[in-house]
Amino acid sequence: MDERKQTELSPPPVGGASLLVVFAVLCLTVFALLSLSTVRANGRLSETSARAVADYYAADVKAQEILARLRAGEEPEGVEWDGLGELSASYSCPISDQQELRVEVRFPDALDLENYEIVCWKAVPVGQWEADDELDVWDGDSTLF
């Protein structure tokens, strides 16, 4: 009877297969969490990219409207004219806090505004660029350590 009692109370053996299953579940959990964080980061990046594209095209539409008004003979606000040589107009439309769309249009004949040439139509950064000259480089002096 003592032998039967001993076998009934002994714990089940934990073998290599059980440890392998626990390790596999742990690895899959870590990979799932890494995948989730990657998906969230990609979602934020795609939203930022979509917002940037929408802002650019909104500025592009506004620039096209100003060009259409120029070709119709109007003088929209914010347009700078240069009449030296050929007649040219330049203006800008804000894209974001950091960028604007700059446009320059040349009219070879000041009397024919339907004939025009786009000289510049590009997004440029706005604001003053400041260089970061603070670079801590080891000067070779070992007494600091």
Give a verbal description of the structure.
The protein has 145 residues and is α+β, with helices and mostly antiparallel strands. The protein has one domain. The chain has two helices and four strands; from the N terminus they run ααββββ. It has a four-stranded antiparallel beta sheet. β1 (80-82) and β2 form a beta hairpin. It is elongated, with a radius of gyration of 34 Å. The mean pLDDT is 87.
Question: Could you give a short description of this structure?
Answer:
By secondary structure, the protein is α+β, with helices and mostly antiparallel strands. The chain is built from 2 helices and 4 strands, in the order H-H-E-E-E-E.
Compute the average pLDDT: 87
Q: What pattern of helices and strands is seen along the backbone? A: HHEEEE
Number of domains: 1
What does the overall shape look like?
elongated
Query: Which structural class do the helices and strands define?
Result: alpha+beta
State the distance separating the first and last CA atoms.
74 Å
- Report on the biggest sheet: 4 strands, antiparallel
Poorly predicted runs: none
Strand order of the largest sheet: 1-2-3-4
